[in-house]
C-alpha cells in the first residue's frame, strides 16, 4: 500500500519580478516532478505550483529551496500551504462590500506578526486602503489598484519585520481550483 499523499500549494517569494530571480515555470515543474513530487502543475509566471506529496510541508519547503538553489542558482523563500489553509484564507476574507478580486491581496506571512508592530501599523492612516490580519494571513485591499498604492507585500514586510508572499484573490481561487482537481483525481 502506498503512502497517502496530500495536496500542497507552493508559493515562491519574488520570482520573475522586475527581471530578477528568473525561473521558467516549465523547468520548475519538471524539476519538481524529478524530485519525486506527484501531479505537479504550475500556474502563471509568479512562482505558483500545486503538487502532491507524502512529505510534510516543512520537508517540502526544504527540498524545494535546496532544488531552487542547486539547480537554478536562486535563493528564494518558499511558502508551502495545505489546502485547508488555502480554503480558510479565501473563506475568511475580512472585508465586505463590492470587492474587485484583482485588487484584494492575500499574503502568507512566515509567522503571526508581533502584536506591538501590528498595533503600530493599525494606528497608521492608510486612507481608502484596508488591511487585516488573521493568524499568519494578511489581507489588503487596494480600491485604486496597486500602481499608486502605499500598501504592498514589501511595505508589510518592512513594517511587520516578517517575510511574506502574496497573490490576488483571482490567483488564490485558481490555485484552489487546481488543488481541488488534484484531490478529486486521486479519489
UniProtKB/TrEMBL annotation:
Gene3D superfamilies: SP0830-like domains. InterPro entries: DUF1697 (IPR012545). Pfam families: DUF1697. It comes from Sphingobacterium oryzagri. This is DUF1697 domain-containing protein.
Amino acid at each position: 500500500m502506498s503512502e497517502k499523499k496530500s495536496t500542497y500549494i507552493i508559493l515562491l517569494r519574488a520570482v520573475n519580478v522586475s527581471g530578477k530571480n528568473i525561473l521558467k515555470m516549465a523547468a520548475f515543474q519538471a524539476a519538481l516532478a524529478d524530485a519525486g513530487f506527484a501531479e505537479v502543475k504550475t500556474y502563471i509566471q509568479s512562482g505558483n505550483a500545486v503538487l502532491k506529496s507524502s512529505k510534510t510541508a516543512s520537508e517540502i519547503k526544504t527540498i524545494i529551496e535546496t532544488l531552487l538553489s542547486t539547480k537554478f542558482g536562486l535563493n528564494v523563500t518558499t511558502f508551502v500551504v495545505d489546502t485547508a489553509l488555502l480554503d480558510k484564507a479565501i473563506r475568511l476574507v475580512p472585508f465586505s462590500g463590492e470587492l474587485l478580486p484583482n485588487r484584494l491581496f492575500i499574503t502568507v506571512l512566515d509567522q503571526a506578526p508581533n502584536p506591538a508592530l501590528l498595533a503600530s501599523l493599525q494606528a497608521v492612516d492608510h486612507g481608502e486602503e484596508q488591511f487585516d490580519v488573521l493568524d499568519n494571513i494578511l489581507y489588503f485591499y487596494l480600491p485604486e489598484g496597486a500602481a499608486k498604492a502605499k500598501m504592498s507585500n514589501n511595505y508589510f514586510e518592512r513594517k511587520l519585520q516578517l517575510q511574506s508572499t502574496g497573490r490576488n484573490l483571482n490567483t488564490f481561487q485558481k490555485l484552489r481550483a487546481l488543488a481541488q482537481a488534484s484531490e478529486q483525481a486521486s479519489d
